[in-house]
Amino acid sequence: MRRRTLLLLLWSFLALMPSLSAQRVRVACIGNSVTYGYGLEDPAAQSYPTILGQLLGEGYEVRNFGHSGSTLLRDGHNPYVETKEFAAALDFKPDVAVIHLGLNDTDPRNFPHYRDRFVADYCALVDTLRAVNPEMEIRICSMTPIFPCHSRYISSTHDWYRILQGLIPRVAEARQTGLIDLYEAFRHRPDLITDPPTLHPNARGARHLAETVFRSLTGDYGGLSLDGAWQPHMVLRQGMTHTITGHADRGDRITLRWRGERYLSAPVGDDGKWSITFPAGEATGEPQVLSVEGNEKKITLPDLLVGEVWLVSGQSNMAFSLRNATGGSDYAATRHPRQGTLRLLRLRPFAETDSRPWSEEALRRANELDFYHGEWKAVSTETALDFSAVGYAFASQMASKLDVPVGVIEIDNGGTPLTSWVSRDLLEDDPRFAKVFDHWRVNDYTMRWCRERMETNLQLTKDPFQRHSYDPSFNEETGYRLIYGQSLSGVLWYQGESDAENAEQYGLLFPHFVRDLRRHFGADLPVLTVQLSNLDRPSWGRFRDLQRRMAEEMKGVSLVTSYDLGERGDVHYHDKTPLGERAARLALQTVYGHRTGAEATAARPLRIEACADGWRLSLDAGEGTLETSDGAVVRGLLGETLDGQWIPLRGEIDGASLRIKHPEGALRIVSIAYAFTGWTDANLHTAGGQPVPTFILPIPER
What we know:
This protein is α/β, with parallel strands linked by helices. It contains 21 helices and 30 strands. The strands form six sheets. Strands 7, 9, 10, 12, 13, 14, 15, 16, 17, 18, 19 and 20 form a twelve-stranded mixed sheet that branches. A five-stranded parallel sheet has the order 2-1-3-4-5, sandwiched between helices. The longest helix has 23 residues.
């Protein structure tokens, strides 16, 4: 008791005598123009070190030792170690140093000549700091991004930046410093960077940087949280591992409990991140509980099932709801699979891409990547009506045919080009697509009508980097990212209307898209892609042929035809459920090996051979033959003449082949096409009811 009384008296004395209390913690922010606050209206008030000092509070003294244009390299054109700011930092004898250098070392005056000195020079800088205070806590930072609008991005900066970025963790390991990941904090946030020259944070960016450093220094991440769409009532894919991630305060260790087993994370580090990988186990319709628990908080996810999980995704024809589809109300009321076997998650965008300006809230949420939201729900008439019509027809058929629970996730957004669904790093790494980010609101990677619609949505902002649904990588960063870590059984993809005017570009980009999906959801992920529907647009025939060829050439990609369901003047045809059922039959056959009673795969044109009165066109129709949908003669065949004319051709069915007669006269036919116009009355089917897809084949030379 006496000792406690003495301690209380001592504490009271110190509180009354500030001069005897502990000194403030000295924090030195060392760096280049990003640290200095270049481009800000008032660097002294707005730079990240100033804001960091405000966040840390009275117990800290934070000083800005940033020098614009400085290099980490000692032989660079402006070495930081020779600046007056570095000398002042040494005199300050900081308790904590935060170093952010390297951006200027990507300059052609520096990198080609001294690149191999980067690690040694960085280590020497750390050693020099520690010499003035051996107890100094040092955090080095990965570099904030250089975005593709930079003038040297394609010619050199992109590659050199990546090389130096990869060396910074070596320095942290070699000198046992902390590492703050500023690249990850900014890589999806171009709205936080000024323009030009595409690398300096604006005022909001400086605050974001300060908050990132603050969390790393204090370890305060607001306690336990989960990333993404880990929710009650969800379905996990059977037999696969899943990785659940989140944030927690430094030093916390997270425990996950699932199906009677316990899984433990590594201790949470300075970045506040934790992850746990666990097996879902065998399929079960018996509800399960998943829980994660930290030092002070527990999160419980009840009523989880294990089975098969599919993603349905794309633009407006996938987003078209069952409520608005032909016979949608009856379909929702009568096509429920057996109780408890189907769960739906619709992640809907916060704002639609219609002809209206977005609200300030929508603009803010787009920039902060907080744009998609939704909850896992058991199927009901109401949840079915609000779901994608194609997606629900697909989901209900899958759930009724498979002996396990089925979960279907819908992520779609009207008018979105394919560039908006592909990860930023894949686009940046391809010289053909790196410039898609360069003033994307006016460049020709995106079709004109999309740019016009986007400008309408963004009328209320002057931010040149305002994010939008048509922005490159936006839907990947805001939508798909919510379900990363989960395993998918497959993807049903219905998109292309917003890319149909540049089939060649789409042909280069679609393989990137599929590769992107597979690196996140499984290397063998099946992808079902829907060929564009019937519509009176001249570019659509060529685009449908591209979709067919890619499905034939890419392993694990299958084609679903839809031109027999379209409406001549309406891109949003209403008869959607037959397409979803067609896609389900294809998935059941190609992914699960079910015998669906009829060939579900699209017929594949094989070759053209000359014969006495014309040509024989052979198709792969599975185990069946060809027929016409209405019993009439074959319609939809066209021949392209040597002089560029397109003329109708007559064809007769012969098993799985067509005998095509040469037209009268001396015309030379160089290629034969089927269903090649935007709007077509083509009527060729397989015996199983699958429309033969749009195609064009050259006539082989004799």
